[in-house]
Amino acid sequence: MAEAATVKLDVPGRRRHSWLSRIPWFSTVILSAVILLGIAGPFVVPHDPIESNLMDSFTPPFQAGTYPLGTDNMGRDVLSRIVGGARISLIVGMTVVFVAGALGTVLAMMAGFFGGWWDSVIMRVTDTFLSLPYLMVALVMTAVLGPSVRNIIVVLVVIGWAGYARVLRAEVLKMKEADFIRLAITAGASRWKILIKHIFPNVVNTLVVLATLQLGTTIIAEASLSFLGMGVPPPHPSWGLMLAQGRDYITYAWWLCVWPGLAIMLTVLACNLLGDWLRVRLDPKFRQL
Amino acid sequence: MDRTLLEVKDLRTYFFTKRGVVKAVDGVNFSLKKGETLGLVGESGCGKTITCLSLVRLVPQPAGRIVGGRMIFEGEDLLRKSEKEMRLIRGSKISMILQDPMTSLNPVFTIGEQVAEPIRLHQLLRGTKVWEKVKEMLRLVRIPSAETRIREYPHQMSGGMRQRIVGAIALSCQPKLLIADEPTTALDVTIQAQFLRLLKEIQQNFELSMILITHDLGVVSRVCDKVAVMYAGKIVETAEIRELFNNPSHPYTIALMSSLPNIDRKREMLQTIEGQPPDLSNLPPGCAFAVRCPNRMEICSGRYPPEVGVGDGHYVSCWLSTPEAQSHG
């Protein structure tokens, strides 16, 4: 009996989980690497990502020398180009997510909260944009504007905001009918206060999750556009562009496609996992577990 | 001194829809003294909630509109106030409790934040004074260990506790009038009694007037001083609580009461009121209850009956109670 009393119960409590175990390690490591390399890239890479050196072309990876991931057809260091591509992916991804997210959120809140005329106009425009095939739009826009990083951002924002607007409007509508909003109105809060203080914090979860997922999609979209020659103009390093150029030599220089492909895959996977993790963590029901 | 807090005269709130004009509130009169509780009773869809939303001028837009009447609150007509003035009244002088405590609180803010909001907004307190006041309010509604509870989220509380927190929010600025829209419907019976007792107690301490919307005559008998029975957008009978239970005069009131379970009559089917409440967009010219009324007379479907006094403060709108009907026997 005395023994039984001393048995320690294995209670799954908060102490058993340190904060370390609650961090999504995969996403954190990959994304911090991408961000750090994106910022510090030009100062740490062994070679200039644009400078060609035909003497060293098609050096395979892991060989003794200064090209750990090999070189491409022009003898450019693949590692340096991957790091350079991280910077472009980051700039495009972050800017698009931020601008499109802000635009979509503002429009969704206006449409959902004020309703009526606003709602009809904004949502019909949203429908129109959602029905545009983005490759066609991108093709037309790059044909008009010319391929450049700035233009690829413009194209992706133009296409990207509508998704936020559609999803968040539904959230705002749901919130607007909630009892606590009615009570806030009967407690004397003004419309703007309701919108900003009560409705926005309730849709911000959805917004953040959408944004992380869109970061992944945007990186893929930039890569696809670059792959098709409508994005980042050569010789700038972009993961999609590297894939496109490596495709011609895939039979005897596998590394030209594998490294940029791996970079895209890992980054996008990290974004999506982070999105999943955030979706759970941002729910107040899990906040104090 | 005049003890009247609120006087509603001939309030009319209509909804203008494609199918026609829905007369949700159609000529409602009542008055409320300071510290008094009025029970607003009736079937669903008879205009109880819209009456109360009209009081705070929050009739669902754009279809709904208050088309006539007066609502004299503390000597001033609420219908003449600007939207800005109304905002200052809402939450500070008139506040509300809604039916479902599970959805009445914002899930992303702590309890403390939510109780603090009207205090900051209307009492213009800042800093630690706000938190003192929040704790005071939570203690008032008997939330145990208020210091730790203010940091918790709504999902961590039971339904009864949440409803008391909604109560704390509603009472935080010492309102003169509290509108409680079926505050106990979503609570289980023991918690109901507890919550009603708490409301009653707070009411007596603060000389708060209350309008209690309910379809539960049991709740009415426990809490209210006065009852108004609504049917199809009109008040058909008002009386002091005892008078109404001892001497119900309108056939609808009588029918409502006989559909309550009775402890003396065992193993009997509960009585129901035959038929459905009428379509509010297409009301008959006479008494709206006539089609369901067991004592229907010819005049009932022709003309709406006048309000007649049948006792001290007891008014009823029914042809059966008019002097003519009495004299015909």
Task: Provide an overview of this structure.
The complex is a heterodimer of chains A (289) and B (329). Chain A is mainly α and 289 residues long. Chain A has a single domain (26-39, 71-283), classed as Orthogonal Bundle (MetI-like fold). Helices cover 70% and strands 0% of the residues of chain A. Chain A has helices spanning 2-6, 25-44, 78-114, 116-130, 134-145, 149-176, 179-186, 191-227, 239-247, 255-281, 284-287. In chain A, helix 3 runs parallel beside helix 6 (149-176). The longest helix of chain A is centred in the N-terminal third of the chain and has 37 residues, at 78-114. Chain A is elongated. The mean pLDDT of chain A is 82. Chain B has a single domain (4-93, 175-328), classed as Rossmann fold (3-Layer(aba) Sandwich). In chain B, the strands form 2 sheets. Chain B has an 8-stranded mixed β-sheet with strand order 6-7-8-3-9-10-12-11, sandwiched between helices. Chain B has a 4-stranded antiparallel β-sheet with strand order 2-1-4-5, covered by helices on one side. Chain B is globular and about 70 Å long. At the A-B interface, helix 7, helix 8 and helix 11 of A face helix 2, strand 6, helix 3 and helix 6 of B.
